[in-house]
User: Fold this.
Amino acid sequence: MKPLFNIKSGGPASWTIRLSCTLVLAYVLLWIPTSGSNSLIDTATTALTLMGAALALNLLLGFTGQISLGHSAFFGIGTYTTAIFVTRWGWSPLKTLPVAFALAFVVGALVSLPALRIKGVYLALVTLALGVVFPQFIKWPKIAWLTGGSRGLTDTGFKFDKDNRTFELFGWNPWGNLRGENVKPFYYWIAVVIVVIVYLICRGLVKSRVGRSLVAIRDNSTAAAVMGVNLAVTKGIVFGLSAAMCALPGCLTAMKGTVTPDTTLLTAIGSITFLIVMVVGGAGSLWGPIVGAIVFQFITEKTGDWADPKEIPSILRPLFSWSDVAPAGGIFALTLVILMFVAPLGLAGLWKRVVTRIVNVVPKPAGSATVGAPELSTVAMPTWKPQPVSAEADEVK
Amino acid sequence: MELFLQRLVDGFSEGSVYALIALGLVIIYRGTGHLNFAQGEMALFSTYVVYQFGEWGIPIGIAVVMGMAVGFALGAVTEVAIVRPISKKSPFAVFIVTIGLFQLLNWLDGAIWGGQQLPNSGVGSKQVRFPSLFPSKPTDFVTIFGANIKIQSLGVIALVAVLTVGLFAIFNHTRLGLAMRAVAANGDSAKLVGIRTGRVLMVSWGFAAAIGALGGVVFAGINTNVNLGLMFTVFIYASAAATLGGFDSPGGAVIGGFSIGLIQNMAAGYAPKWVGQEMKVGVAFLVLLGVLLFRPSGLFGSSRVERV
Amino acid sequence: MTLLRARGLTAGYGPVTVLQGIDVEVNEGEIVVVLGANGAGKTTTMRAISGTIPRQGSIEFEGRNIQKASTDAIVRAGIVQVPQGRGTFPELTVADNLLAGAYVRRDGAKAVEDDISKWYSVFPRLEERALQRAGSLSGGEQQMLAIARALMSRPKLLLCDEPSMGLAPLITRELFKVIGGLNREEGLSVLLVEQNANLAMQIASRVYLLETGVIVASGTAAELSADDSIRKAYLGF
Assistant:
């Protein structure tokens, strides 16, 4: 089917589209904290948190083809770094962000070392184990003095001045008399900034030389190595960045005031949640995780009340009313399975399939402008080598 | 000395459970080359089903056999309806599907029996009393060399030993077993000798799930209750066991299971400050990591396993 | 009597069509050889007949249409392929490999055992290594094992895919002697694809020449050797 429109990449039509999308986005972002209800702001903040983590995970998967089921541990590193620095040493929470970033980066880079030798499903297994170990590690009596053990830590967020209800931002108070109720938009904006930072890092990486060598590695590591790409360093950087970016939303969680090791997002379930968000949105696509997080949070919220049968819209009642448990978990699990049949590249993949039928983006003629790196958004599904059980038997002695 | 013996037996008893789950993992891996992340949750589902049968008045022994049959069906259907069509797409897709199944089954368990779902990972989630297969009152123990050994532990070890022997008999001395081994060795050639590989794979998954069901039941008995988080750590331990033994070696899986159980228990018992209950899973993690780094094919696996 | 008749056989891999509609026949008691260079489509032909890849066209075996049959059904009908590269079960012992070969048989364990003994006497080296893992055998031994395994199912038609590949000339000669012998003494029909024209022609009843998916010549071995142009172009002597 021939596409209906042709749009030149970089031409006026494409710029118009990009501009209008950005304007709409900006409008929505501003509308939420100013005119939205408190619960909407909360939801948005949670969605942004998931977004950041999923984008981080996506970088790893899309670029190096490595699956991690342990990103909840990096998220947790962010959480606990902020919590500990704030409670023990009285740091201002925002100042802990770079520290958490750096710490998670180092841990991520360290994890990438064994990951060089361990591939595919085995890596997923090891990282899953990591994700399971992390909460246990926090509870470990040997370091519970630092982490507060099973009970967790409190007062890990901003200190609000009770009388004026103001607080200091980097030791500076630009807010004047900020009332207590307006705290939620503050978290919201921090979340937005975090996501923007993460997104920019991802996008920047994609377009850079490092980005291109990453795609080379992913597609054929032997060839890449032969061409001089330093596998270890590049993979280490990517893993480190992925971990570091995942820690930032974790910090935000701590800033809300309390921290416990059994919080979902810090456990292996959290890792799986990030995975779900990423896959539903579209693994390997730059804005897939963004869409995924929004959809995920939306559905979770909408169906959150469905534990009570009265809340379920009547059409769906017979489907869900038999249980007194919120159906979101089951819905997403089922979605994951169905998605692999129907749209393995997630919503982003579906969108592309639809859009490419209508619109054809004509690339710039070769030789003009700078040679761009392959877009992360055009990255194909990670090509794991299957674990072959039927090895060719022609190993002639 | 007594303490040592007790810990030894306890370790083997726990290890039996890991051996069972690991066996399931290995059978599936050998047949289809996939790692079934949902193995633990399939076992959990079957365990809940056994509980339900018990609630309906069926004696525990029969309930377990029926539960294993349910597990078999679950595994077989999963292979035919979900894994087989998806495996034509990509290994990544299969992986995601098993994760999805993991989540789905756990949610289902919560929805039907748990009344409460994750995130609590067992902490605070509804716990359901589960009877043990063996006499397990505090007074049910024998004294060997001065150590008090629970009858339950001995019973579990014996059960797993018998099952393992039975399985090996099936593998090595029956037509079905030959077919399963042939498919695992060379799927294409298996077709060429007239084996219906699809059917064999379906049965392999069924077997794996049935064995897992038994593992779940045994573990629930030891644990005295079933809860949603029951099989999370067990899955990790079982994976470590399968890795240690060699992912394509059923014998390795059993030995690996017992070994991990032993290592865990000894470590937790003799180094309570460093390991204790919290970090038992940390030990498994280290074993997993160590094996994959230094001897990826495990103790008994073939070098093929390395060719990832 | 025609055992196998394929008309307009078309097959390929994905978007690439390798066989462009060929006609092949094997009569009872014949050894039919398909010669061709690399990429001509020899293995594709084998796979199309044994059902391991999808194919179009008409294929009849003993008068029955097998175009839509699955591989295991085709094996049960009596066609067995010895794949390129041996295709043994590497972790299984030699004995188990042979046992697996008899998988579709329903005539009892005794008959199967008798056959195993028979093939041990034809291939004594296999008997020596009966309990060894098949993967540890040499190339020639694996090829013998593969053929013995295929024969364990008492096929009516044996499909051999480049049996000489990777084997020393001495072994290859022995192999072809065995195949020729089986054909003479037991009436085994064989469809053989080969690059090595010399040896194959010596046992062939009829020969097809396959070039890029098309049959360019066919006839008895004598006829083709007699034709100068064919001989020079395809048979290299």
User: Anything to note?
Assistant: Chain C has a mean pLDDT of 87. The first strand of chain C starts at residue 2 and ends at 13.
